[in-house]
Backbone:
């Protein structure tokens, strides 16, 4: 939670990869692209129990529509978009900060809910995404192609990951210990 913009730091909400293979999170842009454009072997990849678009998804976003939405974040907006660039990612690869550069200025958005909300009327499903840009003849952005993974805020328990772990034979104590590291499970006496 402490890595995700707009959230608080909590000892029991530290990140952990949702696979049993021991491989680290993707670090380079190439690794991140391969991660988001494929269906890696992780506990939350259970197509027999979920719609594939909940695991991997893509969006086409008109640059003109995005520039219009930016007017709500900055008076007058940034003009026609020249560039959209991810400035910061968490250790897990989630987008923490995005720069929007236009013909009239720049704007940085750096909170999880803000990043998800600015790209779409209904918000992106997750901040685990990458952006590819399409340009017009003048070099201005015409469209953004967004490739993403997961659905949610990436803080706490992953419902599909917990299901995948249970299907792999893990009990509830093991599952909860993975998602809430250092927390103690107790019975309430009432």
Residues:
């Amino acid at each position: 939670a402490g890595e995700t913009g707009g959230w608080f730091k909590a000892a029991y909400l530290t990140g952990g990869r949702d696979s049993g293979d021991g491989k680290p999170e993707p670090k380079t842009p190439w690794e991140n692209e391969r991660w988001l454009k494929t269906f890696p072997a992780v506990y939350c990849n259970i197509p027999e129990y979920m719609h594939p678009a909940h695991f991997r998804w893509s969006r086409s976003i008109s640059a003109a529509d995005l520039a219009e939405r930016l007017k709500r974040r900055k008076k007058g907006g940034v003009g026609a978009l020249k560039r959209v660039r991810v400035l910061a990612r968490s250790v897990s690869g989630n987008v923490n900060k995005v720069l929007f550069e236009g013909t009239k200025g720049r704007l940085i958005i750096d909170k999880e809910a803000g990043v998800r909300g600015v790209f779409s009327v209904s918000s992106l499903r997750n901040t685990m995404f990458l952006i590819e840009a399409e340009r017009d003849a003048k070099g201005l952005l015409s469209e953004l192609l967004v490739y993403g993974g997961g659905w949610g805020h990436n803080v706490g328990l992953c419902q599909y990951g917990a299901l995948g772990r249970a299907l792999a034979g893990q009990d509830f104590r093991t599952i909860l210990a993975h998602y809430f590291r250092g927390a103690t499970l107790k019975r309430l006496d009432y």
The chain has a mean pLDDT of 85. The longest strand covers residues 81-89. Residues 146 and 165 are 29 Å apart (CA to CA).
